[in-house]
Design goal:
Helix content is 11%, strand content 44%. By secondary structure, the chain is mainly beta.
């Protein structure tokens, strides 16, 4: 007896289908300078394969990267951010393969904003910024430095 197409179920879970769709999605990661008082934000982002260079961002400006996920599920981007005038810095992952992150980023766009009290990720479906990482006090890598 043949299965009725209207009642048959797929053996793939919804998460698996979503994961398959994410491989075809072009992802966008934005880093925005939301600091006050015209403070410059130094940003240096990298992945295992790409060094996106050093950017000095004026207030309300941004840098971004665009990419597709690798097929082995290990796409990772991280950034070093610093405000030399405040002597604060942070190093954090800004993209990793995780369904919770995909949801917060609305399955295509992660928006990170550096603010005076730390770094926030925009929860796009809920339309608010979520605190993700505090600043660390101390030495700041200058624009001609590299991160490891």
């Amino acid at each position: 007896m043949a299965a009725n197409p209207s009642t048959s179920t797929s053996s793939a879970s919804p998460l698996t289908k979503v994961q398959l769709n994410t491989w075809y999605t072009k992802w966008h990661v934005h880093v925005v300078n939301g600091l006050s008082n015209n403070k410059i934000l130094l940003v240096h982002c990298k992945s295992a394969d790409d060094d996106l260079g050093i950017h000095n961002l004026a207030v309300d400006s941004e840098t971004q990267c665009n990419f597709k996920l690798n097929l082995i599920g290990s796409t990772l981007f991280f950034c070093y951010m610093a405000s030399e005038s405040d002597h604060v810095h942070a190093r954090l992952d800004v993209f990793w393969e995780d369904p919770n992150l995909f949801h917060v980023c609305d399955w295509k766009r992660c928006i990170w904003t550096a603010k005076d009290n730390g770094i926030y990720l925009k929860n796009i479906p809920e339309n608010h910024d979520e605190f993700m990482h505090g600043w660390e006090m101390g030495s700041v890598l200058l624009a001609n430095s590299t991160i490891v």
